[in-house]
Amino acid sequence: MVTVAEKARSAEREDLAGEALEFPDAEWVSEPPPPSFGRSPSPCRGGSNGSDQTDGRRVAAIAAVVESVADPEIPVLSIVDLGIVRAVEADRVVLTPTYTGCPATHVIERDVRDALDAAGYRDVRIDTVLSPAWTTDWITPEGRARLHAYGIAPPDPEGRRVAVCPQCGSRQTEEISRFGSTPCKALWRCRDCAEPFDLFKCH
């Protein structure tokens, strides 16, 4: 499977004109972005950064900017880890909220806008699409690991209503409320250590 990081490097090497990075079939990994993307962008007044960039380089650089944006409700996750970035193109970023009416949607759009503007990509628009609907299947493996380390049980990949306690690792757990700290989570309790925890609901 081709990783997004590999796509970015390929785009820089080959100057792929017009290629967009789409994320549903890409496996995100925890390696850092290519060094050229990590440098501060050139100052730009009122325009877009890298007007001399080919489309391939531009898309890869925009993708690196977007990957730096954290989810406002679970700050240990990037919005890419959460799977809500559907595509990055030379002139737009496509987002899908975790559910219709999610109160964090506007915050995420603002944060992406601020990050793009700060990097000099003021001409890149942000499109929010609701179909296909977001699914927990889009959370990356790294995102699931970060949820667990943060104290939130990740959704079961097979869709079962089961949870492993993120505190002690016990499977002796039970649901005590269908709603947790946010509507996309349920409140569970471990029968062994008696600690409550959130479970990310399977969508």
Automatic annotation (TrEMBL):
Indicate, by first and last residue, each region the UniProt record lists as having compositional bias (Basic and acidic residues). 1-16
Disordered: annotated segments? 1-55
Location of the MIP18 family-like domain: 60-118
- Comp. bias (Low complexity): 37-46
Pfam families given for it? FeS_assembly_P, Zn_ribbon_PaaD
Annotated PaaD zinc beta ribbon domain residues: 160-201
Q: What is this protein called?
A: Phenylacetate-CoA oxygenase subunit PaaJ
